[in-house]
Amino acid sequence: MAALFLPCGDTGLTVQFGDGIDRDLNRRVLRICAAVEMAGLPGIVETVPTYRSLTIHYDPLQTSQTDIIEALRPLLEPVPDDGAATGKCWRIPVCFDGEDFAPDMAHVAEWANMDPGAVIDIMTSVTHYVYMIGFAPGLPYMGDLPESLNIPRRKDPRPGVPAGGVLIATGLTVIYPVTNATGWHMIGQTPVPLFDVNADDPLLLSPGDTMTLVRIDETEFRSIEEQVRAGTFDTNEH
After folding, report:
1. Helix, strand, or coil (residue 173)
2. Is 23 in contact with 130 (CB distance < 8 Å)?
C-alpha cells in the first residue's frame, strides 16, 4: 500500500506502510528509519519504528509536517530487500522450569493441547524476530509463533512479573526488562538483563534483531545471575 501520513499533534508525524504484522513490511520500516536518520533532516528529535509504521518526533520551531513530508517522499521509494539481516543475532538463556520461572506454563500447555516439553521445544526452535521496542524500556515485541501457540491474553492481569520474564500472547513473545504487571502468559525467565540504565547503550536489543532461546536449568540460571551481579557476565551476540 502507499504510505499514509498521519499527523500526531504539532510535534509528530506517523508514516504508515501497511496494516499487518509481517517481517518484510517491518524491514521496510527499518530501512526507511535508517534512511531518515542518515539524511540528517533539520528539526528531527527522534524516530520510532513499530510493526508497520515510523513515527517522527520533531521540533516545530525548526521544521513543519509539510517540510518533513516533502523531505521524506524521495526516501520512500521502494528499495529491494536483498534478504540480508538488518540486526544482530542473539542466543538468550531461559529457564522454563517450575512455578517460579514459568507460572503459566501448565495453562499454556493445556490450552495448546500439548505437554510443557512440546511448548518448550517450540519456543527454543523458533527464530524470534524483534519487530519493535516499546511499552517499557528495552522490551522487545517478537514474532512469530506458530498458530498452535497463538493463545489469547490472560483474562486477569498477573501483577509483579519479574525482570527477565518470558511471556507469550496473540502469537508474539516479549521479555520484560523490568518488573511490571501483564496480561500475557509467563512461561520462562532469563537472567540476562535487557535494560541497564548505567550502560553506554542501555538497551540490549534493537528492532530487526533475531533471537534464539536456549533452555537452561535453575542451577545455570543462578550461576548466570551471580555473574550479572558481579559484572563478569558477557552478553554478546552469536
Report:
1. strand
2. no
Cell numbers given for 141: 515485541
CA distances from 1 to 4, 76, 86, 166 (A): 9, 12, 22, 34
Going through 26-157 in order, the beta strands assigned E by DSSP cover: 44-49, 53-58, 89-95, 128-133, 140-143
On whether residue 237 sits in a domain, the answer given is: no
Boundary of a domain, candidates 29, 50, 76:
76
Pick left, alpha or beta for residue 139 (phi over 0 → left; psi -120 to 50 → alpha; otherwise beta): beta
Taking only Cα atoms into account, the Rg of the chain, rounded to an integer number of angstroms, comes to 19
107 pLDDT more than 90: yes
Residue 173 phi, psi (nearest 5): -125, 140
Sign, Cα dihedral of 47, 25, 121, 124: negative
* pLDDT tens digit sequence for 154-213: 999 998 899 999 999 999 999 999 999 999 999 999 999 999 988 888 999 999 999 999
What pLDDT does 237 receive?
Answer: 56
Is there a single domain that holds both residue 138 and residue 174? yes
pTM: 0.92
CATH, residue 166:
2.40.100.10
Which of these, 47, 149, 56, 62, lies nearest to 104 by C-alpha position?
A: 149
Q: Please say if the pLDDT value at position 96 is more than 70.
A: yes
165 and 195: one domain?
yes
